Model the fold of this input.
Amino acid sequence: MSKKPGIPKGTRDFSPVEVAKRQYIMSAIKKHFETFGFQPIETPSFENSETLMGKYGEEGDRLIFKILNSGDYLSKVDDTVYDDRNSTRMTKFISEKALKYDLTVPFARYVVMHQNEIDLPFKRYQIQPVWRADRPQKGRFREFYQCDADVVGSNSLWQEVEFVQLYDAVFNELKVDGVTIKINNRKILSGIAEVIGAKDKLIDFTVALDKLDKIGEEGVKKEMLAKGISEEAIDKVQPLFSFSGSNENKLDQLASLLSNSEEGTKGVEELGFIIDAINTLGLKSSKLELDVTLARGLNYYTGAIFEVTAPENVKIGSIGGGGRYDDLTGIFGLKGISGVGISFGLDRIYLVLEELGLFPDVLEDTIDVLFINFGEQEALASLKAIGSLRAAGVKAELYPDAAKMKKQMGYANKRNVPFVVMIGGEELANNTAVLKNMTEGTQETLNMDELSKAFKK
RNA sequence: GUGGUUGUAGCUCAGCUGGUUAGAGCGCUGGAUUGUGGUUCCAGAGGUCGCCGGUUCGAACCCGGUCUUCCACCCCA
Done:
């Protein structure tokens, strides 16, 4: 048993059916990325560690897969570092490359490196695997695909509006009804923190607030207190805990709550613009929801924050996310370039479609016709016929061995092949072929011309 | 990284409080049917019970470790 091969934790093999289903999702995403004007790029599977490390917070560093240096990497390690036996500190001496953790940071690196060849605003999309050294659980893998679309070089809020439409277009195409596109704005969160006098605790505050739907009001308050946020401060944000009504309604409440904060007011304005525009333009099947508790994601979001959640009856959490980052390329030395983008979680969308039974049946791909193998001469004649069928776009194959009929027929049967052609001794002599319909069980003898015509649609 | 959970034939799973040769269904191979599948019937192959160690006269079953699965936390797609 132990001799059996295995694959690493959190990785998967994909069978032909699974690949077909994944491609179905990917092509829907790709189609809309392209109709929205995005162009594809690809970046390497692994980057220099320094490109990735420190970009996702402390937690992120832990989850980055590090690649061991080639050669005799230990001999180059300094004695003091070696004797220290501190893994974190040792890492940079024995590993200088790492598997990419997301598509956004490598994209920022790409923009900086290729700034002279890019025309701004630059709209790119990217569909590639990423890796995280996380513990697997439902909808969470160590290798998974992200499908990202980002725009750099434009501060326009119309981009945000278009991304909402893009999410809607893709999920509508995939026939997933009832997707919620949640939207928030970092400036609103900062504004709230400012108004309650906890500006220095912005991250702790937002992380706690984000858990509202999970641990409830009391839980959130408890966590905030534990993080050193005062009771008066928590009292001031009380309205947030029972935030309800229409998006416009929420905006009004936020506007008055944040009237003393310049930044917060800006955030309310930005959100108002996006929500107004979407109200006028309309969405096909998703709904846009202002959610002040939304604080997910990376520390670099500065404006809009997006998160897409699956329809209520599917418990999978978020299937996409994104936001605006005013200065992402700044970390690589290119200041003043704003970016905004969204991401689709392919593997999670797959689980949603599977659970809702939304994959089309036609994805079960098979060949159109199997030729039974009766021996050398017969196989040769079969391959002649197969050649002209293939030229006409028919998926045809010859059973490779002159095995027993039962076996060959059984193979056709198991692969759901709709037609079988038999060219045996008799047919060989008469230059004919027997075409059998496997679902009806009927068959007829045809000459070669009639055979190729039979498959013309 | 923390806590819990799972592992028996190719697959899905039984297996009593530890007691002789570990079972079923499906699948697989062969035959009934030497050029006609999906149905039926008959026969057969296939397991060092995840791995390592311990307790015991005796371990699939108890204990420890390890790997794997799934779940929750952290975090996230």
Remarks:
- The two ends of chain A are 50 Å apart (CA to CA).
